[in-house]
Automatic annotation (TrEMBL):
Residues 267-452 form the N-acetyltransferase domain. It comes from the Bacteria. This is tRNA (guanine-N(1)-)-methyltransferase. It is an enzyme of class 2 (transferase). Keywords: Cytoplasm, Methyltransferase, S-adenosyl-L-methionine, Transferase, tRNA processing. Its main location: cytoplasm. It comes from Georgenia daeguensis. Its EC number is 2.1.1.228. It is found in: Cytoplasm. Specifically methylates guanosine-37 in various tRNAs. It catalyses: guanosine(37) in tRNA + S-adenosyl-L-methionine = N(1)-methylguanosine(37) in tRNA + S-adenosyl-L-homocysteine + H(+). Pfam families: Acetyltransf_7, tRNA_m1G_MT. The keyword Phosphoprotein does not apply. HAMAP family: TrmD (MF_00605). The gene is trmD.
Length: 465
């Protein structure tokens, strides 16, 4: 590959004589040429800039000087049409953000030409002229901060591209696992001797010699770091690359992978707000029928929804905070799940149904009346996050100075999936109850969790107001 850098400060690129890039140049793996723009000036002061048309501070670099320089370097002087793919790169704070994807593409090019501006920048006609002349022109930025010129950006591009060229990096395998690499994750932390330093030990697992566990630990740390430090990267991960464990790690950081091949999305569990009533009623109408066994008549399901899950009902659940607590799992496009917790108003209040009161003996007892997520989020971990937040909220609730001791629920005997989910969150089956849905008298499994046994997650923030 050939890389040409044109600048008024050629010495700025001397660092590229060092290290891997320097060796790659000496080994003939990279043909890097640095040019002084002033070599294409025509006046005895070797002028490269002039005052800006339209006024304003500073100076602008002249197009005619740049034109002569770039024609030469691109081999277009005398109208030549050089072979191979050429890219003219113009560093500028107003350019597209440089990424590893861009660098990987640039590493396949035959000739890169970097035009390093100074002062207020290069006359805008230069980039337009070469683009119109059929040259691939890319104006790029390193990031949202202002430098004094393009030389630093040229150093970055040359190093980032050169290390991807065959033979430059000793062990190509190391290119695979790094940040922003194919996995699209940040790197896991690395350690070396001494095993103890400044009172800090190397993570035990790295000394275990168990390569499988070490690989899994490193993947977990890479996922966690990416979710914590670069949430913008999580939404671009390919779900096909995310196994069950990956998804569990991301779920712990609020990222969930919907069914159907979509990328991970941020879902936040928060207290319901009065303005959620209509959206929650729509969500409830869409999800309650899915938990009903096929034998249940549609009209019975509809009757139940109309009687308990209308916007007016949710308005009440959201307003009566002493009795009800609503948690909402909010995705990018609105609620994707919710729970409805019914709190006891007195410490010894019994569940309203006798057959349940006979099974659920611990007090104070709260009822997890509703726990639903949209189908595309079933199995994604959203329901689990809602459940953890709900039991944490219940455990933090005092009734006559007594913390709620247990949360019970009823779920249709046929809904095995729900029963498995509740069991994974500490709920045990106590028995059954009769439950009316419209005209249909159903049999529910009654399950309950003893809150003292459940590790409490970070409680969701207290209800607004
Ligand atoms: C090229 C001239 C200086 C910029 C007036 C300060 C890239 N991420 C980045 N930040 N800054 C640059 C950059 C700055 C440059 C030039 C790149 C040429 N300047 C100018 C406009 C405001 N001075 C950059 N890549």
């Amino acid at each position: 590959m050939r890389i040409d850098v044109v600048t008024i400060f050629p010495g700025y690129l001397d660092a590229l004589d060092l290290s891997l890039v320097g060796k790659a140049r000496r080994d003939g793996l990279l043909d890097l040429r640095v040019h002084d723009l002033r070599d294409w000036t025509t006046d005895r002061h070797r002028t490269v800039d002039d005052t800006p048309f339209g006024g304003g501070a500073g100076m602008v670099m002249r197009p005619d000087v740049w034109g002569r320089a770039l024609d030469d370097v691109l081999g277009r002087t005398g109208g030549g049409d050089p072979a191979g793919r050429q890219v003219l790169l113009v560093p500028t704070p107003s350019g597209e953000r440089l990424t590893q994807r861009t660098v990987e593409d640039l590493a396949t090019v035959d000739q890169l030409v970097l035009a390093c501006g100074r002062y207020e920048g290069i006359d805008a006609r230069v980039a337009e002229h070469y683009a119109d002349a059929g040259v691939e022109v890319r104006e790029f930025s390193l990031g949202d901060y202002v430098l004094n010129g393009g030389e630093v950006a040229a150093l970055v591009v040359v190093e980032a591209v050169a290390r991807l060229l065959p033979g430059v990096v000793g062990n190509p395998q190391s290119l695979v696992e790094e940040s922003h690499g194919a996995a699209g994750l940040l790197e896991y932390p690395v350690y070396t001797k001494p095993p103890a330093w400044a009172g800090r030990e190397v993570p035990e697992i790295l000394l275990s010699g168990h390569h499988g566990n070490i690989a899994r630990w490193r993947r977990d740390l890479a996922l966690e770091r990416t979710a914590e430090r670069r949430p913008d990267m999580v939404g671009t991960l390919d779900p096909a690359d995310l196994d069950r464990r990956d998804r569990a790690v991301l779920a712990r950081h609020g990222w969930f992978v919907p069914a159907g091949g979509a990328a991970p999305v941020r879902v936040v569990v928060r207290p319901g707000r009065p303005e959620d009533a209509a959206g929650l009623a729509d969500l409830a109408a869409a999800t309650f029928p899915l938990a009903c066994p096929p034998h249940m008549a549609e009209e019975d399901v509809a009757a139940f929804v109309a009687a308990h899950l209308g916007p007016e009902h949710f308005a009440a659940y959201l307003a009566e905070e002493e009795r009800y607590r609503v948690l909402v799992a909010e995705g990018p496009a609105g609620p994707v799940g919710y729970t409805l917790l019914v709190l006891p108003l007195t410490a010894q209040e019994s569940p309203y149904a006798e057959d349940v009161a006979a099974l659920v003996v611990a007090r104070p007892a709260a009822e997890l009346s509703k726990c639903y997520v949209l189908p595309e989020f079933q199995g994604s971990g959203v329901a689990g996050a809602l459940l953890d937040a709900t039991t944490t909220q219940a455990a933090a609730h005092l009734v006559e100075d007594e913390p709620v001791a247990t949360v019970w629920l009823g779920t249709n005997r046929a809904n095995r999936r729900a029963q498995r989910r509740y069991a994974r969150h500490g709920f045990v089956t106590l028995g059954t109850r009769r439950f009316r849905v419209g005209e249909s008298l159903e049999e529910d499994v009654v399950m309950a969790v003893t809150l003292a046994d459940v590790p409490q997650t970070t409680p969701p923030p207290a209800p607004a107001g």
